[in-house]
Amino acid sequence: MIAPPKPELVTVNIDGREIAVPKGTNVIEAARLLAIDVPHYCYHPKLTVVGNCRMCLVEMGMPAVDPATKTPILDPASGKQKINWSPRPTIACATNASPGLHIRTTTPLVKDCREGVMEFLLVNHPLDCPICDQAGECRLQEQATGYGRGYSRYIEQKNVKPKRTRLGPRVTLDDERCILCSRCVRFSQEVAKDDVLGFIDRGSYSTLTCFPGRQLENNYSLNTVDICPVGALTSTDFRFKMRVWFLKETDSIDAESSVGANTVVWSREGVIYRITPRRNDDVNDTWMADSGRILYKEVRADNRLAGVTVDGLAVLPAAALAAAAELIRGGGVAVVGSGRSSVEEQFLTRKLAEAAGAPAYLVARSGAGDGILISADRNPNVRGALVTGLIRGLPAAALTELAGQIDSGAVKTVVAVNEDLVAAGLTPAQLAKVKVVYFGTHANPTSTAAQVVVPTLTVFEKSGSFVNQQFRLQKFAAAVPGPGGALDDLEVLAKLTVAVGGKLGETPLYQASGRVELNALWELIGQAVPALGTVRYGNLPSTGLLLDGTPWAALAFPEGKTLHYTPPAAPAAVPAP
Amino acid sequence: MAIITIPRKPLTFSERAYLPQIAAGLRITLRHLFKPSETLQYPEERPSIPPGYRGAPTLVMDPNGREKCVSCQLCEFVCPPKAIRIAPGAVPEGSGVEHVEKGPQAFDIDMLRCIYCGLCEEVCPEEAIVLQTQYSMCGTSREEMVNHKDKLYEMGGTLPDQHYKWDKKKAAEEAGNAH
Question: Shortest Cα distance from B138 to chain A (angstroms)?
Fold first, then answer.
């Protein structure tokens, strides 16, 4: 990989402290590096700068130079170069770092500016925080507290604008709360490439609305809710569900495709309320698709498997594992792993397949890529199966090879890990010919046909890691506990592997609670997979770890170009910016 | 530590004489015998509740019969013993108060947890939760001691509203301020 050119550094002075930043960095970002907060609404690091909220006004100055001789003018009092301060404030978001730039953010002028801007923004604001879903994560609340004047002088009638407007299937708009920052407009134009939002009317009557006959229905519409600094755009799904200050944030990964968008799962007392994107500049910036935000509904789905069964009868987990081991010891076994399982589970699936002397298959899952944050490979972790050695090549579109072996009678038992075999191409008649051991979360034709059914955990209920399309190893953490009766996939796989005669190293794998200790498991993975030698779950950075994908460079991966990912075979193979 | 010895005071003559002390004691007894009684025959007699008393928290309606709570969940957040549980929800269209948008679907106060601190009343931005005068709660199960929404409104009744904030809001919405 060619190293990107080193950015040219320039030194700027903010509130008397100097910092070297890459040329072109704007003052808000430069001040952020010095932990100086420059309040802003319309500026967003991943969108173009428009400078229409005026909240980030600061004082700017440049070193004085004699116009005739171009020599620095010295200040006789200090002996240093004199700074010519601009008589008017300037907006920090549109001021880029240049050599010698001086910025003041704490002067009375700046304070007056912020108070003035806050006062104008609050003139027509309905102040309905008690019923506003944004309360608790609202920039207007935070900055009114931090930089506002603290009381209102406004006695006139406030403007009336449309409330409870349905902007699209997933977004509700309250125009009275809108501060016209245009982040949503710019997002729709620049990132979603679906230009549907705009302002109508002038002055304080300006109103955000959809273009006539259009609605905000693209698969990225809920990002406008995330970037809305006030409560104007709210998620219809999350509307009036729960206050954000009650919610616990858990870092997770979007499992809907191999992009692996970084997410935050918001839960309270074991119930997930929403999923929002988490910033990762190398994967998803600050965005994610709407389709990934409703995945949490699978956690409380009606068809969630409730208990361990053998031949339809409820048994204890140990009895089910014994029954599964008995079937596997009978020989003629095939293991069907999943591209939706974590790296850890795929490693243990491989161990199980090796212990059983069985071939391992993976189920391909594909769809159309949208070129932004959904790729053609709808499995989040096919590359994890390659890295851990569960499979050698890319999974076939359907399990035709396995189907042939079932028909010929070579395979008598199929272990399905989190995959519906009927959906993967086997016919119910073929399933009826074999004994099926099913580990999975939801009821499906495979669980109905299976002799041994062990309910396991969804991605929100367990910790683990995925390898995304860039070969970036990213971890996710358990947000909520699993339902009663469900077992940890790792525990099931590890115990079954040992039960059929496999070896899982010397280090104790289990915690006192009976759960598999991830770092201990990663020691095993590190021993078996040299590329992951020193990687542990505990030392994975939150932004992910880029693995070397060259051993699999010859494989024809189905992904097309998405945000921050260019397929290597494409003609213009440039490294992701 | 130094030990300070405190000498016992010698008894006075009247104390040593014994009978004057008996007489003084009897005088106090006789005075209380003929004084009006301070004892309240609870529960037949009830004490008068002073203003500002913090009894059981209740939910109140405004004079128009609108439930004042908008389920902002600040009381649930501030409640030190976590006695309050709210399930927020949208006000249904066609109810006449849909401009309020949000209201509680369920509102539970666990009176076994409540410590009558009054923080919920203090934090409420809508003046919807009020600690009133009821101080004696009893029940035969834990479930019985949880006051649900209908019970809370029954206990709370209607309190005069000085602001009519949402009525003003609706009037402004109907009058409009468009150009």
Answer: 29
Closest-CA distance, A386 to chain B, in angstroms, reads 46
Q: Which CATH number belongs to the domain containing residue B74 in this structure?
A: 3.30.70.3270
Give percent of chain A with pLDDT exceeding 90: 85
Residue A274 sits in the same domain as residue A337: no
The tokens for A529 are 């997979």
Instruction: Identify the sign of the CA torsion A293, A299, A303, A308.
Output: positive
Q: Which residues of B touch A239 (CB under 8 A)?
A: 90
Residue A32 φ then ψ, to 5° = -60, -35
Give the rounded distance of the alpha carbon of A318 from its chain centre: 36
Residue pair A395/A339 in contact by the 8 Å Cβ criterion: yes
- pLDDT tens, residue by residue, A424-480: 999 999 999 999 999 999 999 999 999 999 999 999 999 999 999 999 999 999 999
The two three-digit tokens of residue A142, written as one number: 């935070």
Q: What is the mean pLDDT of chain B?
A: 92
The C-alpha atoms of residue A519 and residue A536 are separated, in whole angstroms, by 6
Q: How far is B176 from chain A (nearest CA, A)?
A: 6
Question: A159: domain range?
Answer: 129-299
Q: Does the structure's ipTM exceed the value 0.90?
A: no
| pLDDT value at residue A570 | 47
pLDDT value at A494 more than 60: yes
Interface of B with A (CB under 8 A): 70-74, 76-77, 88-90, 99-102, 125-126, 169, 172-173, 175-179
Q: Judge if A238 and A284 occupy the same domain.
A: yes
Answer yes or no: do B101 and A164 touch at CB < 8 A. yes
pLDDT band, very low/low/confident/very high, at A576 (cuts 50, 70, 90): very low
Distance CA A147, CA A257 (A): 42
